[in-house]
Amino acid sequence: MSADGPPPGTRSDWTIDQDWQSYTPAEHQVWMTLYERQSRLLPGRACDAFLHGLDALDLHRGGIPDFSRINAELNRLTGWSVVAVPGLVPDAVFFEHLANRRFPAGRFIRRPAQLDYLQEPDIFHDVFGHVPMLTDPTFADYMQAYGEGGLRALDRGQLHNLARLYWYTVEFGLLDTLQGLRIYGAGIVSSHAESLFALDDPSPNRLGFDLERVMRTPYRIDDFQQVYFVIPSLQALLDATLQDFEALYGRLALSGDIPIAAIEPGDQAFTRGTQAYAAAKAKMA
Ligand code: PHE
Ligand code: FE
């Protein structure tokens, strides 16, 4: 990632003012459309921690949320806050914010034509997707630890493997509960189509979370995931990452990647996916 400084008008830590007053009615409407669609879909799909967080932060009131309003409650609950940034920020900047319990969120919102898909994370993905989980004390600690681990991994040139952990947990993680699988990943809950696909579609593999296994598995950024990893609890996720990763990074340097759709002998398979979706897409390309 580039070592360029922040763009003009941006502070040295890459934050900007959210400038909530300047959102247009049309922009607020995009938030409300997305909010209504997802909040209808997610009960029984998203995990309790997410749904509680969504309630606690009252994210629907008046369209795009004002960060100063949600920060008052978020700070009280777990000591986290949301800060506005212009878009993707350099890795070191991102990790530094997480390590200090600040979540960097894009201030811009997608256009009405992009309701279902956009490449760069906007405020709906960042705030609706990520922030509710930050009200959970265990997940809040995990995200801070990830930031600290990210800074260390960056120093050691190990970001490649650590990024997969973020992807398969924070963005696309599933949780096993007595009621069945539930979503906690922000990339899923902020996507209408993937909130259905991740739980219901027979195509993807759904495998028990194993730290080293996850860090050996590549991911795709252009389409639905071919594999989701299922954690038994948020506490188990946090516990698995408390160890120093030094030895793990050493092993990962020697062991190869696992093909994205493979199921290994040691895997706990919740679903042996057909991979039909990915196969059909590959044929079209
Ligand atoms: N324990 C990890 C390390 O030693 C840090 C980490 C914590 C990474 C939580 C990811 C998630 O680097
Ligand atoms: Fe994200």
Set down the secondary structure blueprint:
Blueprint (H helix, E strand, L loop, with lengths): L24 H17 L6 H10 L9 H12 L2 E5 L5 H9 L2 E5 L16 H8 L6 H20 L2 H13 L2 E4 L2 E4 L2 H4 L2 H9 L4 E4 L2 H5 L11 E5 L2 H7 L5 H9 L14 E3 L4 H9 L1
Parallel strand pairs: 1-2, 3-6, 5-6
Antiparallel strand pairs: 3-4, 5-7
The structure holds phenylalanine (PHE) and fe (iii) ion (FE).
Quick rundown:
The protein is α/β, with parallel strands linked by helices.
Report on this model:
Strand 3 and strand 4 (180-183) form a beta hairpin. The chain has helices at residues 25-41, 48-57, 67-78, 91-99, 123-130, 137-156, 159-171, 186-189, 192-200, 211-215, 234-240, 246-254, 276-284, and strands at residues 81-85, 102-106, 174-177, 180-183, 205-208, 227-231, 269-271. It has a 5-stranded mixed sheet with strand order 4-3-6-5-7. Strands 1-2 form a two-stranded parallel ribbon. The chain contains 13 helices and 7 strands. Helix 4 packs antiparallel against helix 6, helix 6 (137-156) runs antiparallel to helix 7 and helix 6 runs parallel beside helix 11. By secondary structure, the chain is of the alpha/beta class. It has one domain (20-284): Phenylalanine Hydroxylase (Orthogonal Bundle). Bound molecules: phenylalanine (PHE) and fe (iii) ion (FE).
Secondary-structure class: alpha/beta
CATH superfamily: Aromatic amino acid hydroxylase
Structural domain count? 1
Please report which band the strand proportion falls in: under 5%, 5-15%, 15-25%, 25-35%, 35-45% or over 45%: 5-15%
**Bound small molecules, which ones?**
phenylalanine, fe (iii) ion
Question: Into which percent range does the helicity of residues fall?
Answer: 40-55%
Task: Describe the global form.
Answer: globular
Order of helices and strands: HHHEHEHHHEEHHEHEHHEH
**Unreliable residue runs:** none
Look up the CATH topology: Phenylalanine Hydroxylase
Look at the structure and give the mean pLDDT.
96
Q: Give a quick account of the main beta sheet: strands, pairing sense, barrel closure.
A: 5 strands, mixed
- What value does the Rg take, in angstroms? 18 Å
Number of strands: 7
CATH class: Mainly Alpha
Alpha carbon gap, first and last residue: 29 Å
Strand order of the largest sheet: 4-3-6-5-7
Supply the CATH architecture: Orthogonal Bundle
Give the count of helical stretches: 13
